[in-house]
């Protein structure tokens, strides 16, 4: 067992290649086993911030912790809010973020379980 405390104050702007903007990201945690890496981070999108379309080699699960936002695939968009749980299948092209006209932040916990050494594949902006 590994217990890690990640204070909310430890958020930094991210320049991740899948980001359209510089969302706030927590330090997160990561663990490797059986050829897989499991990671988690908290991401906070300020009004208008979002990711590009992107894919993961493994599954990505989002759990909305604050505000309202959008999750989308090539087949459509859905508005989500606190308490919603979203699952993206491996290699599913998707994006997520805040609405352009939002008055408040949109935050979610992101959990990824991917083959060791895999990286997110950033695509175009939505």
In words, what does this structure look like?
The structure is a single chain. With 126 residues, the chain is mostly beta strands. It has a single domain (11-117), classed as Jelly Rolls, CATH 2.60.120.10. 0% of the residues lie in helices and 48% in strands. The chain has no helices and twelve strands. The protein has strands spanning 12-13, 24-25, 29-33, 36-45, 54-55, 59-66, 68-73, 76-81, 85-88, 94-97, 106-115, 121-122. Strands 1, 2, 3, 4, 6, 9 and 11 form a seven-stranded antiparallel β-sheet that branches. It has a three-stranded antiparallel β-sheet with strand order 8-7-10, with no helix packed on it. A hairpin with a 2-residue loop joins strand 3 and strand 4 (36-45). The protein is globular, with a radius of gyration of 14 Å. It starts with 11 loop residues before the first strand and ends with a strand.
Cα distance spanning the termini: 39 Å
CATH domain class name: Mainly Beta
Main sheet summary:
7 strands, antiparallel
Helix content: under 10%
Summarize the structure in short.
The chain has strands at residues 12-13, 24-25, 29-33, 36-45, 54-55, 59-66, 68-73, 76-81, 85-88, 94-97, 106-115, 121-122. With 126 residues, the chain is an all-beta fold.
């Amino acid at each position: 067992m590994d217990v890690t405390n990640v204070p909310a104050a430890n958020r930094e702007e991210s320049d991740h290649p899948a980001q359209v903007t510089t969302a706030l990201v927590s330090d997160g945690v990561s663990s490797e086993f059986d050829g897989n890496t499991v990671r988690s981070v908290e991401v906070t999108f300020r009004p208008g911030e979002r990711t590009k379309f992107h894919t993961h080699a493994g599954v990505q699960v989002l759990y909305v912790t604050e505000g309202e936002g959008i999750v989308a695939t090539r087949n459509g968009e859905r508005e989500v809010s606190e308490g919603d749980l979203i699952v993206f299948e491996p290699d599913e092209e998707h994006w997520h973020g805040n609405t352009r006209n939002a008055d408040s932040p949109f935050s979610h916990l992101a959990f990824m379980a991917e083959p060791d050494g895999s990286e997110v594949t950033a695509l175009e902006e939505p």
